């Protein structure tokens, strides 16, 4: 096996986190147009499910009951519950707190993988690189504002989101080698949609057609559904199977960097020297963790 194919997977992971970093700005635009986080998630995953079906239906795979339960757990942990806890956390805690805590997911994933899978244990070089990338991520998230206001409810929700992504990573690790990535992704969308529906019994879906007809709304929904969900979830699940869960999850450290860059370009947010220093640390840490 030559190294070139593996580099393609690294590029796929980098592309995915780049898109996911931009989704925070896209979601912020939709919220400004009166959509709730739950409504955004439903429309996003419904669009992704409709778009992925023609590709996944070319060959129908069947999962046994145990695997079907694992796929349901993936849809719950990496879909409905993850997005709800992350977005509801923003109602109680500052965005810097939420971003910082959610981006600890690679740390929890590495700990869990080292406990359950000997082959996924990190070397000293990888630990050092990951620590540098984490430090850089902290600088990027704070973006020059070194004050964190404690908000127990919001912080615990953000921590729950990070732990849910860890669970999702463990489930995909368990099942990833048995089914194609596109089949797993379709199931994640299906169970994500199924498990979000009870939420609307408490907060009914109330998006008006006039709002959906706005170009800025349907344009961002298409971006979230087709690119950020359908395409990126397929890529991410395939990359985790090829590179390993820990190495792939470390790319999440790039998320805040992309977010502040997109926010600076699209909505005029300021980038500080601290954020630039953090970006350099992320790049160096990832290079150190991955170099031969």
TrEMBL record:
Pfam family, one: EamA
Subcellular localization(s) per the UniProt record: Membrane
Transmembrane parts of this sequence: 12-32, 38-57, 69-85, 97-117, 129-150, 156-176, 188-205, 217-236, 257-287
Coiled-coil boundaries: none
Main localization category: membrane
Domain of life according to the entry: Bacteria
One GO CC term, this protein: membrane
Keywords associated with the record: Membrane, Transmembrane, Transmembrane helix
Domain EamA residues, every copy: 10-141, 153-286
Bilayer topology annotation: Multi-pass membrane protein
Gene3D superfamilies to which the protein is assigned, alphabetical: 1.10.3730.20
Stored InterPro entries: AA-Vitamin_Transporters, EamA_dom, EmrE-like
Family: Belongs to the EamA transporter family.
Protein name per Swiss-Prot or TrEMBL: Permease of the drug/metabolite transporter (DMT) superfamily
Species this chain originates from: Alistipes timonensis JC136
